[in-house]
Automatic annotation (TrEMBL):
PROSITE patterns: ALDEHYDE_DEHYDR_GLU
Gene source species: Lentzea aerocolonigenes (Lechevalieria aerocolonigenes)
Family the entry assigns: Belongs to the aldehyde dehydrogenase family.
EC class: oxidoreductase
Name recorded for this polypeptide: aldehyde dehydrogenase (NAD(+))
Domain Aldehyde dehydrogenase, residue spans: 5-466
One Pfam assignment: Aldedh
Complex formation: Homotetramer.
Enzyme Commission designation: 1.2.1.3
Active-site residue numbers: 234
Record GO terms (molecular function): aldehyde dehydrogenase (NAD+) activity
Keyword annotations of the record: NAD, Oxidoreductase
Length: 494
């Protein structure tokens, strides 16, 4: 079946056309990856690190074409697209050195003439399934460390970012990765799931990494659990931003603007609800509304706050989220698609999936708008009276990916950190913005506690193996043949 990827800023612009595979396509790719993995694992880790270094240099050499392609295909503002490509470079630069630091440990034995060791071994074949809102950065978080650790990879990117995915794959292949070690599969979601199910049944996949919706993450978690595997799940978010009574409001507004509306609110780390202290609520809301009204929306190749929604299916889903706005809410400005009959001041776009930014105040803790992820340019605003209440509200939706607090009081910052369930906490900064060497991931409906990036991701793509070596020439039994040193435990100072 053919799939046509179009430019969401100009739907008449066809970016690429691909042929979608079937479940068998996925299984065949997993079989090739399985056949190639052992030879790749035998390549010394520092040499695998050199391949990762090649990837970094090649991405730098193809930096601008890759960024421009991301902007054209998914409508991400060019400044953010360049930042996304830089994340691949940063990730590669970090893991180059990890090829020389896949450390195990020597451990002292309780017996003489015996040594204990630990080793990191590759998991095997990693099946990586990613969304298209970060079509090249997020895949690099999985694929680079997986390859470095000696795994082979089968990658299923989103169809609507197929051209970006193919370019990413081509750059990686040029870095010297052997045949079969890195496979790409384009397939629709249900075919991918069926293929993954069959590959797991045939023991062709040893680790699954998934970035996408919480609903699909639950299904993948269930499937992997039946095979006694623990997937790496990076799912949705309903990320709170708490603004305290002592916050720098101008800074908080800047953070809310970028977190809520950067990438058109289509990040898993996008701001969901601003939870603002009642004493500064009116002032914050007034400044936030003013800042959003002044922001430029439109052509993502220029300097804009955000461009279009990623694809038609996301526009349709966003229309549903707008339907959650109720009579008790106050909407600040127009909502829905930007059209000639519903214009926006300063709009620079054309024929695409462009939507007005929506600020909704008067949000309540039992609103769907508060409880559910809203993947698009909409931010809720609500009041709180004390910090414990704000923390409780921040935790209530059950997600636990990212959050932020704006305060000038260190006590509040650390109380918030200790009470909030999110895997990532920002103080006086946006809910969005990951660095390549810091653990990334969430809890609850946002994930299963797995982490990406930095040294922490190594635990996703390696398994610890212990070895004991007894060179005493006799059988020494643990806990039984150990040396005992006597002591007078009845001794007391007189």
């Amino acid at each position: 079946m053919a799939y046509v990827s179009t430019n969401p800023s100009n739907t008449s612009d066809v970016v690429t056309e691909i042929e979608l595979g079937t479940s068998r396509t996925f299984v065949d790719a997993a079989r090739r990856a399985k056949a190639a993995q052992r030879a790749w694992a035998r390549v010394p880790a520092p040499v695998r690190g050199q391949v990762i270094g090649n990837i970094g240099r090649l991405v730098e050499a193809n930096f601008e074409p890759l960024a421009q392609l991301v902007t054209r295909e998914i409508g991400k503002p060019i400044a953010e697209a360049r930042g996304e490509v830089q994340e691949i470079v940063d990730t590669a630069n970090f893991f180059v050195g990890e090829g020389r630091r896949l450390y195990g440990q020597t451990v002292p034995s309780e017996m003489t003439d015996k040594q204990l060791f630990t080793f990191r071994n590759p998991v095997g074949v990693a099946a990586i399934i990613t969304a298209g809102n970060f079509p090249v950065a997020v895949p690099s978080w999985y694929i680079i460390p997986a390859l470095l650790c000696g795994n082979s990879v089968v990658w299923k990117p989103a169809e609507y970012s197929a051209a970006s995915a193919q370019a990413f794959y081509d750059v990686f292949q040029a870095a010297g990765i052997p045949d079969g070690v890195f496979e790409i599969v384009f397939a629709e979601g249900s075919e991918t799931f069926n293929g993954l199910e069959q590959a797991l049944q045939e023991s062709l996949v040893d680790k699954v990494g998934f970035t996408g919706s919480s609903e699909v993450g639950v299904r993948i978690g269930e499937l992997c659990g039946r095979h006694l595997q623990t997937p790496c799940l990076e799912l949705g978010g309903k990320n709170p931003m708490v603004v305290t009574e002592d916050a720098d409001l101008d800074l908080a507004v800047q953070g809310a603007l970028f977190a809520g509306f950067g990438s058109a609110g289509q990040r898993c780390t996008s701001l969901g609800t601003a939870i603002v202290h009642e004493s500064v609520y009116d002032e914050f809301l007034s400044r936030f509304v003013e800042a959003v009204a002044a922001a430029t929306v439109g052509d993502p190749t220029s300097d804009v706050l955000y461009g279009p929604l990623l694809d038609e299916k996301f526009a349709l889903a966003y229309e549903k989220y707008l339907g959650w706005i109720g009579e008790h809410h106050t909407v600040h400005g127009p909502t829905g698609r930007i059209t000639d009959s519903s214009p926006r001041n300063g709009f620079t776009g054309a024929n695409g999936f462009f939507y007005h930014p929506a600020i909704v105040s008067g949000v309540r803790a039992d609103d769907e708008l508060f409880l559910q992820e809203t993947f698009g340019p909409i931010v809720g605003v609500m009041k709180y009276s004390d910090l414990d209440e704000a923390i409780e509200l921040g935790n209530k939706p059950g997600y636990g990916l990212s959050c932020s607090i704006y305060t000038t009081d260190p006590n509040k910052a650390f109380r918030f950190r200790a009470g909030i369930s999110a895997g990532m906490v920002s103080v006086n900064n946006s809910t969005s913005g990951a660095e390549a060497h810091l653990p990334f991931g969430g809890n609850g409906k946002s994930g299963n506690g797995s982490r990406q990036s930095g040294v922490w991701v190594l635990d996703q793509f390696t398994r610890w193996q212990s070895m004991n070596w007894d060179y005493s020439g006799k059988l020494q039994k643990a806990q039984m043949d150990t040396l005992e040193i006597g002591a007078n435990l009845d001794f007391r100072l007189g």
